[in-house]
Specification:
By secondary structure, the chain is of the alpha/beta class. It is built from eleven helices and ten strands.
């Protein structure tokens, strides 16, 4: 089985706790990833809202060093772009472009450090615009940053963006963009989820969307959220034409996840559930690996 995960917070956890990317207390471990015939894990460094510019840069630099060191230690490659040929690899991603500060030159620095994707905001406001807890769109600086990300082959990620920011991105971007870890608002009416219109915009633009396992985004009765809710979101997005655009964005090590899918080792439960409800092997592989792999191979 092959697996490509668009989002986890394991790198942030490792940096802030002094652990490694193969720590048994993590939901994602290299040992588990290497059990897949092919495994690509987007390793996000979360930049919390409200921290200072210096602290944001310091956190990013620590994450960069940690990812390089652990990749070498545990024998995993870091994908730097182009054709994805390594069977087990990390993608370096950033969650919250607060790390840019007001310095547009930092975009090139991120690219030189191997960043492949950046979530524009977390839930609050930064200099690029407004997150999911706001009604603010892209700022003029944010529009400049979008262009610079695209010029440096860094994928723009609209998970956590406000609805207004989402449509501003759709208007000003020239390349496909993604929602790395966002579910369907029609299934669970949460501000972090995507409306049908938003999902279809991403599909029409050639982007991808990762199903998120966080209970609050799976069900409005979050305490009872389960694997079945993951299937419900998947079914709905597929009904909107998502066969070639739907992926997984687990949110491992950064959220509260139902027991049957709460670690990388348990991804096989999702694989089997997809087959049990009648998905053929080709469709399952698209969702679990091929759609994300194909997108990043083209970008």
């Amino acid at each position: 089985m092959r697996f490509f995960d668009l989002h986890c917070d394991t790198l942030y956890k490792a940096v802030t706790t002094g652990s490694t990317l193969d720590d048994v207390n993590n939901e994602v471990t290299v040992s588990s990833g290497k059990k897949f015939s092919a495994w690509t894990q987007c390793m996000a460094i979360w930049i919390p809202d409200g921290i200072s510019d210096n602290k944001a840069v310091e956190l990013f630099e620590k994450a960069y060093r940690k990812l390089k060191t652990d990749a070498e230690t545990f024998g995993v490659s870091i994908n730097q772009g182009g054709e994805l040929t390594n069977l087990h690899s990390f993608f370096f991603t950033v969650e919250n472009a607060l790390v840019i500060g007001s310095d547009i030159d930092r975009v090139k620095t991120l690219s030189e450090c191997g960043v492949r994707m950046i979530t524009l905001t977390w839930n609050d406001v930064n200099l690029l615009g407004g997150g999911a807890d706001t009604n603010m769109g892209l700022t003029d600086f944010g529009k400049v940053c979008i262009r610079e990300f695209e010029n440096n082959s860094i994928v723009v990620d609209v998970s956590h963006a406000s609805e207004k920011m989402f449509f501003d991105v759709a208007q000003c971007s020239r390349r496909p963009f993604v929602a790395s870890h966002s579910n369907s608002k029609s299934i669970c009416n949460h501000r972090r989820n995507l409306s049908d219109e938003q999902f279809c915009v991403i599909v029409d633009r050639g982007g991808i969307v990762g199903i998120n396992f966080h209970r609050d985004f799976l069900s409005e009765s979050s305490k009872s959220a389960s694997l079945k809710d993951v299937l419900n979101h998947t079914e709905h997005f597929l009904s909107l034409g998502g066969e070639d655009h739907l992926c997984i964005g687990s949110d491992f090590d950064g959220s509260d996840i139902p027991r049957k899918v709460n670690s990388l080792d348990k991804i096989y439960n999702l694989y089997e559930a997809f087959l049990k409800i009648g998905y053929n092997e080709q469709l399952v592989q698209k969702i679990m690996y091929d759609n994300a792999h194909n997108f990043f191979s083209r970008f």
